[in-house]
Model the fold of this input.
Amino acid sequence: MPDVRGRVRGPAIAAGVLLLTAVLGLPVLLGPTAGAAAAEPGPGVSRGAPPPEHSYRGESIPAYDVVLTIGTDGVLYVRETITYDFDRTGEHGIVRHVPFRRGDRLYDVRNVSSSSSTGAPARVRTTRFLHDVQISVGDRNREVRGRQAYVIEYEVGRAFTPRAGHDELVWDAIGTSWAVPIGNAAVRVEAPVPLRHATCRAGAAGATTRCLRDRDGPYAIDFIQNALAPHEGMKIRVRLPKHAIAVRPPRYVPPRWTGDWPGTAVLALALAAVPLLALRPAPRGRTGAGLVAAGLLLVVADAGDDIAARGPWAFSLGDRCLAGLALVIVGAGIVCVHRAGAGRSAPDGRPVGLQLVGRDVNRSSRRAVYQGEDLGEPPPRRGA
Done:
């Protein structure tokens, strides 16, 4: 009988080695696929992990959360939660710049309040300067360090712009005045009607980077942007159907500069007349002072009517201001020339310095006067 065991032993050993290799190597080969399958999220669960927190050297804003609530009265209700990292340097708080004027349009920024969930001083002070409302949160007599959280709430009236077929809101939810980087920024927009047209652009002025968007039902949309550089913001644009909310008409003021060619011509003539004052006898100093006073009154009158009607930062300057500046320039030139002439005169009114007087016909004798004293005849020249 043939040796069956010898014939079967070789193939059996080879099959066993292949089976053992397959058993041990299969998990290694299928590991990534199996891990991916195990990590497959269920319905309603986000596939990606939360964005990592960016680390910066020096001061920064790790998280910036904004909620923009559109009221039925047309008012924009803003709530900002700012997590500010002061690093190791001590500061008295933060300053948020909210625009109340863009070009010739005014916004009604009001009812500003603040708080802090980390116990930092949260006293709020508001100051209007040029185009912004400066919201200062903190204490002048106390410094804070490390990571602090602030909550700023305010309202913005007349924020919507009526259009032909819709009402539009364009608002930078973060602003471009922050001089520190922002790690993670989130803006939530809530409206009393379904939001069908809402967009977000992130970056500096004029940037077109789209923000990450997540719809939370028909009445709310979340926009997210990571790693914002200093002076980069998130501009939100919302369009609502007509009569969905009560929209008050926008408020406009005259531009800062309304001057025309007549005022410019008067100012140019004044500048051209200043060099001529040194070539001709200058009027009295009182005349120059009077012109300066009259010019200042014209400038104040030009800006005062706008300030009295709309506030100190609604001034507008025009031809009256240019005419006033012309009078100030001419008057200041007369005063300067008069003072320069007075500096070259003696206390009794006679001119000072070395002057030649009493020259005879044949130019053989001269008398010199220096600071009012008669120096007599000059010494004879050699060879005379």
